[in-house]
């Protein structure tokens, strides 16, 4: 239960997201008590677009090697890489057999819509029955896709908690009132995505947020550093900001 306990400390759990074994090992060496994976980084490293449901094999392979690390590992499995509930439950059972401590399971779909609520709650319940020891972080994309929708966020957060989710993840949420509303609506840890200049760590801590993920930020910063360093060998300056999520998708051809 060590990973569960990390969500109930005096400060939010800062969860950095790795994309290969080396990045994961470096983050552990730096002292982070747990690490996650970034679906964008995993997909882009394989030459694939993110959020298309096409990186199941790469995700499982990475989880297998990351399980060697001496800290809890949680894996982003997007929407489970399948519309079949049994296949998603089997995937999580396999991850649990490696020793993976947690998963992110999202309700956003490749067509930029949300999975119907009844399907998602049934999926969450099935996964928890299959692998009760795995921390299921139920991600809802109500703030990530289109206009933020607090009412739908609260409806889904409550439903996912009732279905057995161990935590709720709302990427894109940043305002105090919205965050407090989600915290008041459930009795499980709330995870937010770090958005530079918008989700300051100390403010999130004061609000009572339990976990802050870096998402694809570290991967995107690493790419920018690699380009800047290479150009710097000849005295050139990259002259470009850190690539955005959309920039990476375009780079890969997604």
Automatic annotation (TrEMBL):
<dbReference type="Pfam" id="PF13714">
    <property type="entry name" value="PEP_mutase"/>
</dbReference>
<protein>
    <submittedName>
        <fullName>Isocitrate lyase/phosphoenolpyruvate mutase family protein</fullName>
    </submittedName>
</protein>
<dbReference type="InterPro" id="IPR040442">
    <property type="entry name" value="Pyrv_kinase-like_dom_sf"/>
</dbReference>
<dbReference type="InterPro" id="IPR015813">
    <property type="entry name" value="Pyrv/PenolPyrv_kinase-like_dom"/>
</dbReference>
<keyword id="KW-0456">Lyase</keyword>
<dbReference type="GO" id="GO:0016829">
    <property type="term" value="F:lyase activity"/>
</dbReference>
<dbReference type="InterPro" id="IPR039556">
    <property type="entry name" value="ICL/PEPM"/>
</dbReference>
């Amino acid at each position: 239960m060590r990973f569960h306990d990390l969500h109930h400390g005096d400060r939010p759990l800062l969860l950095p997201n790795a994309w290969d074994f080396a990045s994961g090992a470096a983050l552990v060496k730096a002292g982070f008590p747990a690490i996650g994976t970034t679906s964008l980084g995993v997909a882009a490293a394989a030459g694939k677009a993110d959020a298309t449901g096409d990186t199941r094999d790469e995700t499982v392979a990475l989880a297998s090697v990351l399980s060697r690390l001496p800290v809890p590992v949680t894996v982003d499995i997007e929407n489970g890489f399948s519309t079949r509930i049994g296949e998603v439950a089997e995937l999580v059972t396999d991850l649990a057999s490696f020793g993976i401590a947690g998963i992110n399971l999202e309700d956003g779909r490749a067509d930029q819509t949300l999975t119907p609520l009844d399907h998602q709650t049934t999926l969450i319940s099935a996964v928890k029955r299959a692998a009760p020891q795995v921390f299921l972080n139920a991600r809802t994309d109500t703030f990530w896709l289109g206009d933020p929708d607090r009412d739908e966020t609260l409806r889904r957060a409550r439903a996912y908690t009732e279905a057995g989710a161990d935590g709720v993840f709302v990427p894109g949420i940043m305002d105090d009132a919205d965050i407090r509303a989600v915290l008041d609506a459930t009795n499980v840890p709330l995870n937010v995505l770090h958005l530079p200049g918008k989700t300051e760590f100390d403010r999130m801590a004061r609000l009572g947020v339990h976990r802050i993920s870096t998402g694809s930020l570290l991967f995107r910063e690493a790419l920018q550093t690699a380009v800047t360093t290479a150009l710097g060998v000849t005295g050139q300056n990259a002259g470009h900001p850190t690539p955005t999520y959309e920039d990476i998708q375009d780079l890969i051809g997604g």
